[in-house]
Amino acid sequence: MPQDDFDFDAVSDYLQQDDTLVWVDMFDPDHEALQALATELGLNIWAVEDAVAPSERVKANLYGSHTFFTVYAVDIAPAGATTPPGSLLTKHRISAFVLPRGLVTVRLPPHFDMDRVVQRWDDLDGQQHGVGALVHGLLDVVVDGHFEAVQALDDRIEDLEDLLFDTSSRLPNIQRRTFEFRKDLVNLRRVILPMREVINAIQHHRVEAHHSSELDPLYIDLYDHVLRASEWTESLRDMVTTVFETNLSLQDARLNTVMKKLTGWAAIIAVPTAITGFYGQNVPYPGFEMFSGFVISSVLIAVLSMLLYVMFKRRDWL
């Protein structure tokens, strides 16, 4: 039966009872308290250090009496939310020691809501299946968070693709957002890809006292979700690279268009410049010092400029 007011110092005694499932959840624990619990439960000392060490990677280690793993749950800022420049992802680090009749989870800031794990465990009727169902619920919530983050990034990258061909969009803003998405995908890839080894290790080396074969299909399905999230992340990385390269190509194309139009207008302006240059010389020409000369030069400027404009416009140079 569930019991929240148990004696923390008697955890090892509870673990000896056949009908008991113990879950110790520690958020930003004091190192001495964690060390004392590890000593009482016989946890590997190096695994205990890894549980609170900074910047620990995603992994799973198998020991004689327990399994240790570290994973990262992720949250992504909702669409339209005002966020400072930088990453849109928030990572929650969770380490766990899986015992035959118990689970010890160590969470580091920022806060991660464990209520979802409890709800997932209840949905599986976890009390019947033991610690295996609890571990599955935890990993399932983490992997679902990965999927939600990848889906959100996919939607935002597609929106960014639409902006590429929007002439009113600001290209520097597109470049900045592209780099932010690439950074988020790199961070997401680091926490998703190693999950395959973590799920595989836990699935094939389950240490619970009462091994429930009913959980095997659930772990297989969970592994499939991890593979899909990994493949999706790889495809998004290629998509962001394509957006970045396409943006550069479009900038070059726009620059060529601008240069082409400037060159066309420069050719048109050169006509009146040449004509007025001739009439500005101190040499008698037809119409020199006469009103008719002004009329002739003006007509030549207008006719030749219009002729060049029509020719360039037909060739799409303006």
From TrEMBL:
It is found in: Cell membrane. GO terms for cellular component: plasma membrane. This is Magnesium transporter. The chain crosses the membrane at residues 262-279, 291-312. One of its GO terms (molecular function) is magnesium ion transmembrane transporter activity. The lineage of its organism: Bacteria, Bacillati, Actinomycetota, Actinomycetes, Mycobacteriales. Gene3D superfamilies: CorA soluble domain-like, Magnesium transport protein CorA, transmembrane region. Belongs to the CorA metal ion transporter (MIT) (TC 1.A.35) family.
